[in-house]
User: What shape does this take?
Amino acid sequence: MEQEKETLRIKSDIPNEILLAALKLFAKKGYFNTSLTDIANAAELTTLTSLYQHFPNKQAIASRLYESILDNLNISVDDIRRRNQKASEQLHGIVDLFFKLTDDAPYIMQFLLTTNTNEFLPTQKPLLETPAFSKIIKIIQSGIKSGEIRNIDSLLAYSYFFGIINATLNMVLTGTLDKNASAYQSQTWLIAWNVIAKKSSCF
Amino acid sequence: MEQEKETLRIKSDIPNEILLAALKLFAKKGYFNTSLTDIANAAELTTLTSLYQHFPNKQAIASRLYESILDNLNISVDDIRRRNQKASEQLHGIVDLFFKLTDDAPYIMQFLLTTNTNEFLPTQKPLLETPAFSKIIKIIQSGIKSGEIRNIDSLLAYSYFFGIINATLNMVLTGTLDKNASAYQSQTWLIAWNVIAKKSSCF
DNA sequence: GTCTATACGCCGATAGAC
DNA sequence: GTCTATCGGCGTATAGAC
Assistant: This one.
C-alpha cells in the first residue's frame, strides 16, 4: 500500500487519487462549491463518467473520505496509546500527530478542523462520537482517574485542551499565524497541558 | 428601533424578519442547504418574489446578515472598552457577552463560531479583520504592553484565550455540553484568563 | 406589492456506442 | 472502461397580471 504525500492510507486499492483530489477541493472551496466535474478534472486521466464507476454519487465520495481519515486517525491513536502509559504522554503523542499533520497534510487537518461534515454527511457520526475521538476522551478520563488531570468534566477538559490546540492549528492553516505549526508546538503543548494538569500550580 | 429576541439590531427598518429567518436556517442547515423558498416560508407572510424586493439575490441576504451581526458586535465592543479600563476587565466583558449570546441568541453565536462565511461570502473580510475583532486583538496588545498579559505574540494569545472560550461555547451550542453556557462561564473565564495573564504562577 | 407562471442554468446522474 | 450525448430536477431569478 502506497503512502501519499497527504498521508491518506486507504483500505482498498482503487480510488486514491480521486479521494485526494476531492479532499483538496473540499478543503479549498468547500463541498458545495465543488462539482463532480471539478473532482474529475483534478484527478487527472479521469472523466466524469468514470467517477461513477468507483462511487455511486457525490456523497459517497465525501463519506469515504471522512471514514478513511478517521480510520487512519483511529489507527494512529491506538498506536499512541499502546506506546505510552501515562495520559500526559498519550496526549502529547496526539498533539505531536496533529501538529505534524498540519504541516505535512494540511488538507486532512483542515477537513478535520473546519469542515462542517454534518452539512453534507448528515448520516455520519459527529467527530466526537467516532472511535478515534472517543478514545481521546477516554485518555482524558483515565488521566483524571489517575490524578494526572484535574477533576473536572472530561468533556470540559477536552474543550479546554483541544480548544487551545485546534485554534492554534487553525490559525496556522489559514495563514493568520505565519510560521509552521511546529514553530508553535512546544509552547502550545505546555500551555494546553498545564490548563488541565493537576500538578500545575495555577488553579 | 425594536429589539428582537435574537438581539439582532438592524440599521434600517425593513427586512428584520427575513434576516432572522435566514439566520436560523443558515445556522441549522447551512447556507447551501437553505433555498430562498425556505427563507420565504420561514419569514411568514412573504412569498418568494417579495424576497427580491428587499434583496437582489441570496448572497446579499447572507452578506447583510454578516454585516449586521458584526456591526452589532462592534458596537458592543466599543461599549465594553469605554466602560472598562484594564485589558482584563475588557476581555471579561467580551466573554460575558459571548456567553450571554450563546444562551440568548444561539443562532448568532453559531453563525459567528461555526459558519465558514468565506465559502459563500468570498468578498467579505475574514472575521479577524473586521473592526470588532481587530479591536479585540488591540485589547490583547494593550494588555501585553501594560504588563497584564504575558509577552507573547498577540495572535497566539488570541488563539489560546478564545480557543478555550469558543471551543466551550461551541460544545454548548451543539449540545455536547448539556448545561447553559452560563453554567460554565466563571470557570472557563478563569482558566482562559490565567492562560494569558502574567500574574499567573503557571508558566 | 402580492401571486402565477415561467425561463434559465447548473449539476448530479444515465444511457449507449465503441 | 472511456467518451458523447443527454435527461431530469432543483433552485435562482424574472416577467407580467391584478
Remarks:
- The radius of gyration of chain B is 18 Å.
- Residues 35-37, 48-49, 52, 56-58 of chain B lie near DNA strand D (CB under 10 Å from a C1').
- DSSP finds nine helices and no strands in chain B.
